[in-house]
Amino acid sequence: MPTRAFSTEDGNTNIASINVARTRQNSDIDLSFSPKFIGLDNDGTNLRADVFKKTNLAAVKQAVRSLLLTNYTERPFMHRFGGNLSALLFRLSTEVDDMDLENEIVKSIEAFEPRARVLNINSVISPDNNEVRVTVTFQVIATLEQDVVEINLTRLR
User: Whole-prediction pTM value?
Assistant: First the structure.
């Protein structure tokens, strides 16, 4: 017959408690794909690996950056995925508003990146130079770490 484990309040103190809490680690692959030195081979040649992973704060920062740089309809079957920031470069200067830009950024991060919470957004729109600069300060929900993502968009002529 299987034994049942009760809590210490129930009087069953000779059985060790069960740990049910676990920490969740955020991880993604490194999208830079730059070769990184990992050691020397037996022949003395450099060993390089192709795919590395980013964890915790670096993974969430990379995800927020790629989310904001993604335009609508770039993802198959997810037509409203992304921040659609480069669309602002082709609008007339009277149509672009800082509050609209900030609302779109907050809405896209809340919808598609549940690991981050937006704390502050600073945006500088210079329509004469066809340039948008956005600085997003966010917090990783699991670890309460804060970081900043800076995005500079310039229209190529």
Answer: 0.72
